[in-house]
Amino acid sequence: MNPELISKMQEISPEEQSYLDGNATVNKELYTSEIKFEIDRNRFLKEGRLITVRLHSRFIDFPAHRHNYIEIMYVCQGTITHYLDGKEVTLQKGDLLLLNQHVQHGVRRAEYEDIGINFIALPEVFDIPLQMLKENNTLAEFLVNTLRQNHPVSHYLVFRLGENQAIENLMENMISSMLNDEQNEDSINQYSMGIVFLYLLRHVDCLTQSSSQSYKDVVVQSTLSYIDTWYKTATLSKIAEDFHQSLSVLSKMIKQTTGFTFQELLQRKRFQKAVMLLVESNLPIEEIAVAVGYENQSYFYRQFKERYGMTPRKYRLEHKNDRTIRI
């Protein structure tokens, strides 16, 4: 990030100086209620504005609180520790935390080198990003939850992005424009945030924590279901297309979550079906190979013997009346 911008953000504010001078109490004016500890958006957002940025105040612990706005924290330098659902979550440089207005969280004291930016936004600011996203992804689910009124859901996401230059550049542009209070920036920042979300969709392997079922789990469960039904013709590219993911990112998610590659999972399913057909039917072995997705007969025989230590014909003879199928 631009050193001049970092230097500007690192300057000690009057609020922070008061903490350093011994006023160790968070300004109660931040809260609309001492019981609810809900921070009011009107304190930060000018009338008519949908989004702004605020430097995270250092040198003080922030007790558990909620907001009546959406908060997105981006760590520009150092570390910042949050408490989410009773868990301690430390954000590093480049990490991104998304909190909807229903999340209660606390923040541990940050020091001089720890620079975090809070994007403070009304739910309406995400109308454009939501239109830019496809369905069936964790970011769209997060945005939908920000708009729920009848059945609000507490929802947060943590992305460990590290040195992602594209997202850092987008963040830098938004931070610079809002810190300098440039006019007519709401629309530009709405689209910029939408682009940030589109980049995040390409890096869901960096999603490490979530208050709901992780996107990785959703993708892997869908992959397993797809293999279970379409094992004869299943391809990794089909899943990648459905979830708008690159083959490399999708492969990494599947391997990290299951311990197997897509091809290993597919092969396990195909041979599971093959041995069932060997035991429970009288189909010729060549037809069984084709039925489970192997046109290359020699490859099927070779892989079968490597897996089971015998040929398909011998397996059939030894297990014809055996209903226990080996995977």
Walk me through what this model shows.
The chain is an alpha+beta fold. The chain is 44% helix and 16% strand. It has 13 helices and 11 strands. It has a 6-stranded antiparallel sheet with strand order 2-9-4-7-10-11. A hairpin with a 2-residue loop joins β5 and β6 (87-91). α5 (165-179) packs antiparallel against α6 (186-201), α7 (215-230) packs across α9 (247-258) and α7 (215-230) packs parallel to α10. The two termini are 51 Å apart. Residues 28-35 have low confidence and may be disordered.
Properties at a glance:
327 residues, alpha+beta, six-stranded antiparallel beta sheet, five-stranded mixed beta sheet, 16% strand
What topology emerges from the helices and strands here?
Elements: H1 3-10, H2 14-20, E1 38-39, E2 51-55, E3 62-67, E4 70-77, E5 80-84, E6 87-91, E7 96-99, E8 105-107, E9 115-121, H3 127-132, H4 138-147, E10 156-159, H5 165-179, H6 186-201, E11 207-210, H7 215-230, H8 236-243, H9 247-258, H10 262-280, H11 285-291, H12 297-308, H13 312-319
Parallel strand pairs: 1-3
Antiparallel strand pairs: 2-9, 3-8, 4-7, 4-9, 5-6, 5-8, 7-10, 10-11
Helix pairs in contact: 5-6, 7-9, 7-10
Give the N-to-C terminal Cα separation. 51 Å
Structural class by helix and strand composition: alpha+beta
Give the topology string: H per helix, E per strand: HHEEEEEEEEEHHEHHEHHHHHHH
The number of helices is 13
pLDDT averaged residue by residue: 83
Q: How would you characterize the largest beta sheet?
A: 6 strands, antiparallel
Count of beta strands: 11
Task: For the largest sheet, list the strands in their spatial order.
Answer: 2-9-4-7-10-11
Uncertain regions spanning at least 5 consecutive residues: 28-35
Give the strand content: 15-25%
General shape: elongated
Helix content: 40-55%
Overall radius of gyration: 26 Å
